[in-house]
Design a protein that fits this description.
It is a single chain. The protein is mostly helical. The chain has one domain: Orthogonal Bundle (Cytochrome Bc1 Complex, Chain D, domain 2), CATH 1.10.760.10. The chain has six helices and no strands. Helix 5 packs across helix 6. The longest helix has 17 residues. It starts with a helix and ends with a helix.
Length: 127
């Protein structure tokens, strides 16, 4: 009987997916979209982005590029950077220099527009 192995395999996959782009325990801002707030963005970054880009945003080889000190990040506005995070970048995109997938919203589809702006504000504060 393969049921226990199937259940364990499914549990492992579920836990792995939960670890990539997990939710944030910070209150989700509601109301009109405002400029990003770096402090809120840092909390979202820690719960969603650090597993690939590192806790200090200096990147993790084979997973995510360094965001701290990044010319790419510094060259975007907060709105442009939030949109980039929303869309992500596939491995076959012509501007992808790593061949690694940058999933839309860092793999966390629960992020709202304000949280994306907050993350962008945080990343811009590192540059």
């Amino acid at each position: 009987m393969h049921r226990p192995k199937t259940f364990i395999s499914a549990l492992i996959v579920a836990l792995a997916v939960a670890g990539c782009g997990g939710g944030t325990s910070e209150p989700v801002p509601t109301g009109p979209l405002g400029p990003g707030v770096a402090e809120r963005g840092q909390a979202v970054y820690k719960s969603t982005c650090r597993s690939c880009h590192g806790g200090d945003a200096t990147g993790i080889s084979g997973l995510g590029k360094a965001l701290k000190g990044s010319e790419f990040v510094a060259g975007l506005t907060e709105v442009e950077l939030a949109e980039f995070v929303r869309v992500g970048r596939s491995p076959d995109h012509p501007d992808n220099t790593t061949g690694v997938d940058m999933p839309a919203m860092g793999g966390n589809p629960r992020l709202n527009d304000q949280q994306l702006r907050d993350v962008a504000a945080y990343l811009l504060s590192l540059n």
